[in-house]
Amino acid sequence: MRVFLTTLAFLFGLIIQANAIDIKQIETDKGIKALLVEDYTLPIIAISVSFKGGATQDPEGKEGTLRLMTALMDEGAGDLDGVAFQAKAEELGLEFRFSVSRDKFSGSGRLLRSEREEVFKLMKLAVNQPRFDEDTIERMRGAIRSGITGSKKNPSSVASKTVREAIFQQHPYARSVSGTETSIDAITREDIIAMNKKILSRSTLTVGAVGAISEEELKAALDDIFGDLPNESAIAEIPEVAPNLGDEISIVMPVPNASVSIIYPAIKRDDPDFFAAHLMNHILGDGGFSSRLYTEVREKRGLAYGVSSGLATFDHAAYFSAGTSTRADNRDETVRIINEEIERIATKGVTPEELAKAKRYVAGSYAISNLDTSSKIANVLVALQTQDLGLDYIDKREKYIADVTLEDVNRMAKQFFSTKPTTVVVGPAVTQ
Questions:
Q1: Planar angle of CA 175, 245, 67, nearest 5 degrees
Q2: Are residues 63 and 191 in the same domain?
Q3: Whether residue 2 has pLDDT greater than 60
């Protein structure tokens, strides 16, 4: 099976690189929209689905409700308990998993064409008749609670939580996707059922499919699996939020290393300057061994094993982060070097050579990172729709990157880094 999937990924890569990919836009009789790449090279189908409304929809005081629901979606449906459901999925060769983020609830998987009818029946059960058995709820609740408890001992997790709460404050983005030990214990079976009805609707559903399935077959399957869901969504509107910045927060933990996070404002994915920001971030800290932060912090000074930066983009917010983990006695110097590099890129910009190198990498790595398996391609098809990128995005992406000028990148650096950041340090106390 692995050989087949590797071969399929290779063939899809060739098709896409030749700009010959045929993306079909379909709409079912019940109004479900999907993108399909039809190919019968191998008898495999990959499918990805996404519903709007993620963990931001959790009731206050019961954070983690959608996370708990997600863990239960393949733990029994209809007349099949959890053991029977998973045994049936294994018998059919179905690989399918559910996940949740702050903005969406998703599912993705692969199946054999020969088993599609039985697999689609199983998927229909999971979507429309999840059991949410009390004993299974308690088992999954315990697993999530253990993860929450364990995260309190991890300085990186504590830093992430601190950053989230500091920059988003009272906004739903400040809350944990998994909830707290108190909130996860407060969730009832009725809460989970209510969340299921709230999130799953045809109007918020986006689908991407790749492989050995025709348009008519996919339409029929989607209407059968999702057609009985309510047409209108019950999800609450989430307000836009700008990150609160300027705080300096230090949390003492009895661990060997200090976790450092430095947060600035950023732009969302739909901003026309997104690729300028993306390239600037690549040059500063997201370019691996070639990035400025890696060169200055690790290569020249050996202050940390790794250091990086990133753009966090959500539906209603965005921020830039730079961070690392370093020995406590190196903490202050490491923070100073990171800040100096940020100041340097903001005031002096990037060089033409840096930009040309970044463009080559960012353009060339896309297929390797996003289009090397049928499942990843299905995820891309969903992203084309949810992010409103357009059906021609794959063909036009290289031009979007090529069109970014040196002035665009330097303007983004000045825009991002013109304010005082929020800095969070978690680790051992430093004695002077």
A1: 15
A2: yes
A3: no
**Which two three-digit tokens encode residue 207?**
């689908």
Residue 289 has a CB neighbour count (10 Å cut-off) of 8
Give me the torsion for CA of 289, 290, 295, 299, rounded to 10°. 40
Question: pTM of this prediction?
Answer: 0.92
Question: Above 90 in pLDDT, residue 16?
Answer: no
Give the domain CATH number at 66: 3.30.830.10
Number of neighbouring beta carbons within 10 Å of residue 194? 15
Question: What pLDDT band is residue 7 in, cutting at 50, 70 and 90?
Answer: very low
What local confidence, expressed as pLDDT, does residue 429 receive? 85
pLDDT tens-place string over residues 355-376? 999 999 999 999 999 998 999 9
The Cα–Cα gap between 6 and 9 comes to 5
Total domains present in the chain:
2
In a domain, residue 152? The reply is: yes
Both 325 and 220 in a single domain? no
For residue 368, the tally of other CB atoms under 10 A from its CB is 9
Q: Is the dihedral of CA 407, 409, 412, 416 positive or negative?
A: negative
Q: How many CA atoms lie within 13 A of 59 on its CB side?
A: 17
Q: What gap in Å lies between CA 314 and CA 102, rounded to an integer?
A: 8
Last residue of a domain, one of 194, 226, 258: 226
DSSP 8-state class, residue 430: P
Rounded CA-CA distance 184/193 in Å is: 15
> How much is the pLDDT for 432?
54
Q: Identify residue 397 by its one-letter amino acid code.
A: R
Counts for the chain of helices (H) and strands (E), in that order? 16, 13
Same domain, 64 and 177: yes
Residue 12, pLDDT above cutoff 60? no
Tokens matching residue 279: 């390239």
In a shared domain, residues 59 and 144: yes
Q: How does the average pLDDT of the chain come out, rounded?
A: 94
Any domain includes 232: no
